[in-house]
Amino acid sequence: MDHAAFLIVVLQLCGTNAGGKFVDSTIKLSEKMKLECIYPKKAAIVQTSWMKHNVTHKENIAVLHPIYGIHTADKYKGRIYFGNASREDKSLFFIKGTLEDVGLYFCSIVTHPDGIWEKVIEIIQPADAFEISEKQNNPVFTKPGGTVTFTCPYNIGDSVQQVMWERIKEDRIDTIVLCNSLGGRRFGSDFKTRVLVDCSDQTSSVIVIQNITASDFATYHCVATGKNKTYVMSFTLLVLVLCRMHFENMILVPPQSFSCCSIQASSLVSLVLPLLVVI
């Protein structure tokens, strides 16, 4: 797939689905899938419900209650399970996904005293699935727990109708924020509490992501859509590795607690060496 076609696919799949519903994350259909749903605040969780949106109604999948346990609909027994990573993690795991599982899913968490928090996830067919561009532009470096700023300048020759920021991974695309021409902003559920955005300018957009976690080291797209043109800018967020340098016979010896091969957990040492900081 060439770069232009890739951009069209991204625009069609993310942010909103065909029915106009705002989608927080888009997942590729596979036999094993994780529909991530992690409550980002500290309010007490009263109950969690997972539902699938059908044409005329919402189909119950499972209900999780801290006292009464988990109730799973008969249709999904033996095909899904829930991990126990943390109190806030209510992610749904498929172990036997089929074409019937394509569609919209709602993770609805009832809390006290904050009320209902909801995340919308769409599973799409492999034939419609997105691809990761091989041309990873504009590397940006930070460390876990830090803050990163992305600036996206664009000039598409006419008024900007919307600007969308996305986090792209191999198996999913997460909507960070969608800005429209009227000044409205819609944040993805995973980013509401830690993202600042300025998309008031007709020629650029800026986002700041705070409290960087391991899942944030990925590719990011800024998609500016005009009346006749679309502009996309890509960023790759990489781990800034700090290594202790000790010169003995001109050999670099990092301490045991650091790894000089930690950029995106897989890059070569040669890519990291220019980034080393003496501590």
Provide an overview of this structure.
A hairpin with a 2-residue loop joins strand 8 and strand 9. This protein has 279 residues and is mostly beta strands. Strands 1, 3, 4, 5, 8, 9, 10, 12, 13, 14, 17 and 18 form a 12-stranded mixed beta sheet that branches. Strands 2-7-6 form a 3-stranded antiparallel beta sheet, with no helix packed on it. The radius of gyration is 21 Å and the shape is globular. The chain folds into 3 domains: 95 residues, Immunoglobulins (Immunoglobulin-like, Sandwich), CATH 2.60.40.10; 101 residues, Immunoglobulin-like (Sandwich); 39 residues, no CATH class. The N terminus and C terminus are likely disordered. It is built from 2 helices and 20 strands. It is 5% helix and 42% strand. This is CD226 protein. One of its GO terms (biological process) is positive regulation of immunoglobulin mediated immune response. It is a single-pass type I membrane protein. Pfam families: V-set. One of its GO terms (molecular function) is cell adhesion molecule binding.
Supply the key terms.
single chain, mainly beta, Immunoglobulin-like, 3 domains, three-stranded antiparallel sheet, 5% helix, repeat, transmembrane helix, Ig-like_dom, glycoprotein, cell adhesion molecule binding
What name does the CATH topology of the largest domain carry? Immunoglobulin-like
Q: What structural category do the secondary elements indicate? A: mainly beta
Our measurement of the CA-to-CA distance between the termini, rounded to an integer number of angstroms, reads 44 Å
- List low-pLDDT spans: 1-13, 245-279
What is the CATH domain class of the largest domain?
A: Mainly Beta
Mean pLDDT: 80
CA gyration radius, whole angstroms: 21 Å
Family: Belongs to the nectin family.
Protein name: CD226 protein
Signal peptide: 1-18
GO molecular function, one term: cell adhesion molecule binding
